[in-house]
Amino acid sequence: MADSSLRLLLLLQQVPREPRSISSQQLRARLEDAGYPVSLRTVQRDLVSLSSHFPLVQNTPTGRGKTGVAWAFTKGSQHLAFPGMDAVTALTVSMAMEHLQSLLPRQVLQYLEPWQLEAEAQLRQHNSSKYHDWMSKVRVVPQHFLQAPQVDAEAVGLIYEAVLENRKFSATYKGKPERIIHPYGLVQQGHTLYLICRFGLPLKH
Question: Domain check: are 60 and 110 in the same one?
Fold first, then answer.
């Protein structure tokens, strides 16, 4: 496969789904880290070209230090996977999603919806009764009946990224002044998601 084709595949893999987005400058930096040094103009031209074949949208990036044009897959677009999801994988994903319904907050589950939709589409495509019968034989019964807390999906996504990249961020908590947060890890207990972190000094504005 030509280097340009590999670069385009890598470019698509780096683009998140709405409401998250990534700037053209960030995409260019990631391509360079992967061994594909190209100009910002090339990245922008590639994205415009890809948007005619894939559900990509442009928006204005938000957040401190973000400038230029940002890109994202549309929220309801189908998940792209290589290789494609087979029937057994689709069944496994469907079962996992049913189990996670009682464990994760709804806003967190939204990030898994593309995989769930792809799994359902694959099961419909195979149109095999044994897969549908299996789902009717499996049930997940929660051990608790507490209502899941309401959390901001975009904020959770940003926190996940910060934990993954060992990167600090600024935030407010329970109405307190904005301060630097040093994240260490995440703990899931029932419906509740805990961030293990250290609070820095309040920011001066």
Answer: no
Confirm if 94 and 132 have CB atoms less than 8 A apart.
Answer: no
Q: Is residue 146 situated within a structural domain?
A: no
Contacts of 137 (CB under 8 A, 6+ apart): none
* C-alpha closest to that of 14 among 24, 5, 4: 24
Count of the separate structural domains present in the chain? 3
Q: Does residue 144 sit within a domain?
A: no
Whether residue 175 is contained in a domain is answered as: yes
d(CA 155, CA 107): 10
The crossing angle, in degrees rounded to 10, of helices 129-137 and 87-100 is 20
> Does residue 81 sit within a domain?
no
The verdict on 92 and 68 lying in the same domain is no
How far does the chain reach from its first CA to its final CA, in angstroms?
Answer: 51
Segment of 14-18, 62-66, 113-117 carrying the highest mean pLDDT: 14-18
Mean pLDDT value across residues 102-126: 74
Q: Looking at the whole model, is its pTM more than 0.85?
A: no
Give pLDDT tens digits for 45-71. 999 999 888 889 988 655 555 556 889
Query: What pLDDT score was predicted for residue 182?
Result: 92
Q: Which range of residues forms the domain containing residue 169?
A: 153-202
Contact 24/60 with Cβ under 8 angstroms? no
